[in-house]
Design brief:
- It is a single chain.
- By secondary structure, the chain is of the alpha+beta class.
- It folds into 4 domains: 182 residues, no CATH class; 94 residues, Immunoglobulin-like (Sandwich); 112 residues, Immunoglobulin-like, CATH 2.60.40; 126 residues, no CATH class.
- The chain is 14% helix and 34% strand.
- It contains 11 helices and 35 strands.
- Strands 1, 2, 3, 4, 5, 6, 7 and 8 form an 8-stranded mixed beta sheet that branches. The protein has a 5-stranded antiparallel beta sheet with strand order 17-18-19-23-22, with no helix packed on it. Strands 27-28-29-33-32 form a 5-stranded antiparallel beta sheet, with no helix packed on it.
- The chain starts with a helix and ends in a 7-residue tail after the last strand.
Length: 600
């Protein structure tokens, strides 16, 4: 009998695994009931995740942002053990990671559109949904499979009938289809573009939710007893069009920004906005909140600089009183804005060539630098013995124009901040956090080896576009795309070498193609160098930076005719940037120059 029970259990497990349905497009997503109404957040999670996918390789593997690491608890990712066996069993070198638990402190880095209903409702459905990925343990940014699922209501286990696998094609449909233009040679450009602003992304998310059949009308108003902890909030507050946000001033204090629809202002006798400090960043309960400052609001939109120092967990809250009686004797309607994230919602930036990352964040209005060191990188102090982190007012500042600095091996270890695979070290500057502030990681005492630099505070992230990011590309063109912009030169047939300008991590890079029959190229180009220019109008000696071609790094490239070498500069890639190949130490013998970089 026991054997029969085990066999039955095994069959049930197999049945649950085999029943995971794959969704291939938005039409199929629309035809399921998963997370279709407020306050569910599963579709918002799926939309957010699709924005982080940069590429899909020829094997349909999803490649994430190079700075993303689920093992570092980014955005609240944590290991999922698949105890319920709702997902397929994994190989020993694979792991599942789950995201979407909005109670997690790290989840406050998720965009406001993912957390909106969690902040403004008090019903169990507000935190049911999860997104789960399978990854290679040694390559956590290479996603093998993606699933969406949900907890059974009032329980901690997942519902197999509410679990779906997401095909890469669907993620590409959800992601913004970037339009790629043909250049003069009918080849697609590879370029960097700014990531969309918060407002643009939010509007695209609303459009996606509409296409997927999401509804806010099922989220009904229902008063809660004033004795409840979260009284007197609506169980499901669906005020739309309200925008509350916190930004930084030049002094490291908070700048309060608001937009309130006219009809809400007209129906409210008194309007207040409070800046609150959540003691526990995942809680919006009054018990765990300290009001730092309250402001009377008379205009439907505006911006106000406040004396409140910028800190993790700060939250603006809108209080609406319909009448004087409500103001004096009852409780207001409340709308919760997003909690401020101490790193401004940005991931740590990978320190090139090392198992370490750099992050800028804020505490009490001051700029902090944080180093994430992988625990397997045991000799990091000796590797970084001469390395330092500089603080810069702007990304346009030269490397030697820092406002403050500290050597990496003098950072202090954070003992009470637990990340399973990383140790975290921190340095506190005396600089106020301010828009535009940036930190850079320098390998040694020189100023030319920048291994990492953060996105400027409140700046716009850039995204390097690859051919496969473009919508409706003709597959027949793909083998030619890597040679886009290649300028051939030198030999009798003018094809012994080639020069190409491209972008990587938003930086201007040079790629050198050397014909495999050109065996003595290093001798021929012993004194040759590539200069980087901000404009084709710059004089030959007005380069921003340069590198000798014999110091370019060889890369593995599937090119039968050429060996390929690359160099990444510290110059930001912007329209107009150009590179030139100089034969020798003089600035006179230009063998070839690329066309100026074009805007996306």
């Amino acid at each position: 009998m026991a054997a029969m029970r085990l066999l039955l259990l095994f069959c049930l497990v197999l049945a649950s695994v085999s029943s995971v349905r794959k969704l291939n497009n938005i039409d199929e997503l629309k035809n399921i009931t998963y997370a279709k109404s407020a306050p569910r957040h599963g579709l918002q999670l799926l939309f957010w995740f699709a924005q982080k996918v940069l590429n899909v390789d020829q094997n349909n593997n999803l490649i994430l942002d190079s700075n993303f690491d689920p093992t570092r608890d980014d955005f609240g990712f944590h290991k999922y053990e698949n105890i319920e066996h709702i997902l397929p069993s994994l190989a020993s070198w694979e792991s599942y990671y789950s995201v979407g638990n909005l109670k997690s402190p790290a989840a406050n880095a998720l965009p406001a559109y993912v957390r909106k209903y969690y902040r403004n409702t008090n019903v169990p459905e507000r935190n049911m949904d999860r997104l789960i990925v399978s990854v290679k343990q040694n390559k956590p940014n290479k996603i093998l499979k993606v699933f969406i699922t949900a907890h059974n209501l009032h329980k901690s286990d997942f519902n197999p009938s509410d679990t779906y696998e997401i095909d890469p094609a669907l993620l590409l449909q959800i992601r913004d289809p970037h339009n790629c233009t043909l250049d003069e040679n009918n080849k697609y450009d590879i370029y960097s573009i700014p990531r969309d602003t918060e407002d643009v992304v939010y509007n695209r998310c609303l459009q996606f939710l509409k296409e997927a059949g999401y509804s806010t009308s099922d989220c009904k108003y229902s008063q809660i007893s004033h004795r409840k902890k979260r009284s007197p909030y609506l169980q499901c507050n669906t005020y739309e069009g309200i925008k509350l946000d916190i930004k930084a001033t030049a002094e490291g204090t908070t700048k309060l920004i608001w937009e309130i629809p006219t009809n809400i202002m007209e129906n409210s006798k008194y309007v207040h906005i409070e800046i609150c400090q959540n003691i526990y960043s995942s809680e919006t309960n009054e018990v765990h909140t300290h009001v730092k400052k309250r402001f009377n609001i008379y205009e439907s939109s505006g911006a106000l600089e406040t004396p409140v120092l910028l800190n993790n967990g700060l939250q603006p809250r809108l209080r609406l009183y319909p009448s004087l009686f409500d103001f004096q004797f009852t409780n207001p309607y409340i709308w919760y804005g997003p909690e401020f994230n101490q790193a401004n919602g940005l991931l740590p930036t990978v320190i090139k060539g090392y198992d370490a990352s750099l992050q800028l964040h804020v505490i009490d209005g001051k700029a902090y630098a944080r180093l994430y060191i992988k625990k397997t990188f045991r000799n990091w102090m000796s590797a970084f013995t001469k390395s330092w982190v500089g603080f810069y007012k702007s990304s346009l500042d030269n490397n030697d124009d820092y406002l403050a600095y500290q050597y990496a091996d003098r950072f202090s270890k954070i003992e009470n901040y637990i990340v399973h695979k990383y140790d975290i070290y921190q340095y506190t500057s005396n600089l106020p956090i301010a828009p535009g502030l940036q930190i850079r990681f320098m390998l040694d005492k020189k100023y030319d080896k920048v291994l990492a630099q953060t996105t400027p505070w409140e700046g716009v992230e850039t995204l390097t576009m690859l051919p496969s990011d473009c919508a409706a590309i003709n597959p027949d063109l793909l083998p030619e795309l890597l040679s886009n912009g290649r300028e051939l030169f030198y030999g009798p047939g003018l094809d012994d070498a080639g020069l190409q300008l491209f972008s990587k991590d938003s930086k201007a890079c040079a790629r050198l193609f050397i014909k495999k029959t050109f065996a003595n190229w290093k001798d021929a180009f012993y004194y040759s160098w590539v200069g980087f220019y901000t404009s084709s109008k710059d004089k030959k000696d007005e380069y921003q930076t340069y590198q000798y071609v014999t110091k370019f790094e060889k890369i593995e490239e599937d090119d039968e005719s050429y060996d390929v070498y690359e160099y990444k500069s510290s110059l930001d890639i912007v329209p107009g940037v150009q590179i030139r190949f100089m034969l020798d130490k003089s600035s006179e013998k230009v063998l070839v120059q690329t066309k100026p970089w074009k805007s996306g």
